[in-house]
Amino acid sequence: MHTDEINLTSAINHRTYKISVALPTTYTKEKKYPVFYLLDGYYAFPIAKEAMKALKMGNLVHDFILVSIAGDEKTDYEWLVKRWTDYTFTYRARKDSTFSNMWNIKSPGLVSGGGETFYQIIKNEIIPMIDSKYSTNNERGISGHSLSGLYVANLLFKRDGLFTKFGINSPSFLFWDNDIFQAEANYGQTNLNAKVFFSIAELEDGLDNLLKFEAGLKKYQGFNSTFVLFKDETHNSVGPAMISRTMRVLYSNKN
Amino acid sequence: MKKLLFLGILFLSQSLYAQFPLTKDLTAKYDLTSTFNKTKYTLEVSLPVSYDASKKYPVYYILDGYYAAAIAHGAHRTLQFENLIEDVIVVTISGPEKTTSEWLINRWPDYTFSKDTLNDVIYAKVFHLPEGSTVSGKGDLFLQTLTQQIFPLIENKYGFNGNRGISGHSLGGYLVADLMFKAPEMFNRFGINSSSQRLHLNNEIRSKEKNYAATHKEFNGKVFLSFGSLEPKDAIEDLRYFDNQLKSHYKNIETKFVEFADETHGSVMPAMLSTCMWYLYKKN
After folding, report:
1. Is the CATH number 3.40.50.10330 carried by domain B19-280?
2. Which residue of A has its CA nearest to B70?
3. Which of B12, B79, B271 sits opposite A244 (nearest CB)?
4. What's the number of domains chain A is made of?
5. Which domain holds residue A29?
6. C-alpha distance from B278 to closest chain A C-alpha (Å)
7. pLDDT tens, residue by residue, B37-46
8. H-only helix segments in chain A
9. What residue stretch is flagged as signal peptide (chain B) (predicted)?
10. Which residues contact A39 (CB under 8 A, 6 or more apart)?
11. What residues in B contact A233, CB-CB < 8 Å?
């Protein structure tokens, strides 16, 4: 399997993102491939690229290009700080200070609310770069877990059709004051062209809330979803199973 | 402080990760050539986040590094985010393969102790491999490589506390089941996942287990057994039978059998690698 690692320094926020790419083993420029963007690449990419290989081995998915997005973090601490900014659309000063104190994050501490800026980076910098380097079509998916699951849920309501497949896994809805419901209320459309994979682990909170969110989307034309509850898994232990199943459902070769 | 952090996170039970001093540099890679079967092996290692060279740790070996390495070391990290497992050194073992066909050919001799010509021929056909490329029955050479080259390399380099685990999937699961009775003192943690054991030599593993049970009433080990629920029913039931035999024959053995919902033989790998590691090294 061919993989590339590309460092992209954003002209928008001047931060460096590490973009990791895994191509299908039969990749050829003669074909055009859908692209699956995966957040939290910091820990998720190694798992995802091998899960993609295993899914292909079992002939369970069709070909797609895997692209994970990470920051330039070297430690869990740095990762935690960076994702806090990028994966939140709303600014929550109080949460920033509470968790900066709790986790002993040095000044300026956690700063939430960078989600829209990060979206502009994805849209105007990362996607164009990927589309220029690889043979891609216009079908894009995006997936995240926890805070990045919340992020992906927000992208459902972007109205620009940039993404049509979404992986929303153990999203931090409750943790972020359930403001995702407000984002949905503001959407104001009757159509939502989205294939969504929802998942949550049995040993964490938020199942009812996530089911409620999913149910609220069923009124939209064009929306379809799969919901999986992973038995005997916690918020974090679910990582490998969740990454694999997201790809298997969103890129199933059965449809 | 760390404990407080975890409590905070557990209360929220959503979303965030605790901070750890982990850097990606807590991994290492070693190449070696076996003096027994001349095969080149690659070992990939991930250390616990709080690794301290003056301390001693159990070592957990995982077969089929070809596909398992990145997932296993990734799962090693995700399980530590929440402090779910005890400190353990994880080592994946892979051969020199670059493609899936090469991998299938390379693992065939290594993961089988007995020669099984019928299966060799059948599986070369099933996997579309060249005739005669799958040659079973060289497990002893792999075992010598493991004990005389791989163990010393890892266990002298890192603080090792004398406790080893091993896990495998499919043919690798069969090897692990075999090792339980061939070298019962070598490991005390075993992962037997989607094992192909029933397919080999009329399920000879059953008689190996039975012979062992005739002279042993105890087995000092913790065993994780699993299958994907979409795998053949007879395979799942066969392993469940094996699990029941273990529980009924050895009074001190600890086992857990998991059937992963909606997973196939291949798709189960990420979930299986993570859950197996979690059970075998669960923090009490």
Report:
1. no
2. A46
3. B271
4. 1
5. 3-250
6. 8
7. 999 999 999 9
8. 41-57, 76-86, 93-102, 115-121, 127-133, 147-155, 180-185, 207-217, 239-250
9. 1-18
10. A68, A69, A87, A142, A143, A144, A145, A148, A151, A152
11. 275
- Tens of pLDDT along chain A (255 residues) come to 899 999 999 999 999 999 999 999 999 999 999 999 999 999 999 999 999 999 998 899 999 999 999 999 988 889 999 999 999 999 999 999 999 999 889 889 999 999 999 999 999 999 999 999 999 999 999 999 999 999 999 999 999 999 999 999 999 999 999 999 999 999 999 999 999 999 999 999 999 999 999 999 999 999 999 999 999 999 999 999 999 999 999 999 986
Residue of A nearest to B276 (CA): A237
Q: Pairing state of beta strands A3-9 and B160-169?
A: unpaired
| Beta carbons of B18 and A103 less than 8 Å apart | yes
Query: Where are chain B's structural domains?
Result: 19-280
* Distance between CA atoms of residues B45 and B43, nearest Å: 6
Cα B165 from Cα B159, distance rounded (Å): 15
8 Å CB contact of B81 and A53: no
Q: Is residue A116 a contact partner of residue A89, using CB atoms and an 8 Å limit?
A: yes
CB contact under 8 A, A57 and B19: no
CATH number of the structural domain spanning residue A116? 3.40.50.1820
Q: pTM (2 decimals)?
A: 0.90
d(CA B77, CA B71): 10
pLDDT tens per residue, range B16-52: 443 334 455 688 999 999 999 999 999 999 999 889 9
Selected for mutation to probe chain B from A52, A235, A242 (highest B CB count within 10 Å) is: A235
CB-CB under 8 Å, B82 with A234: yes
Residue A255 belongs to some domain of the structure: no
- Look at A47 and B71 and tell me if their CB atoms are within 8 Å: yes
- Cβ pair A50:B70 closer than 8 A: yes
Q: Which of B15, B77, B275 sits opposite A175 (nearest CB)?
A: B15
What is the tally of helices (H) and strands (E) in chain B? 10, 8
Q: What angle do CA A240, B105, B32 make, to 5 degrees?
A: 75
Shortest Cα distance from A133 to chain B (angstroms)? 25
ipTM exceeding 0.90? no
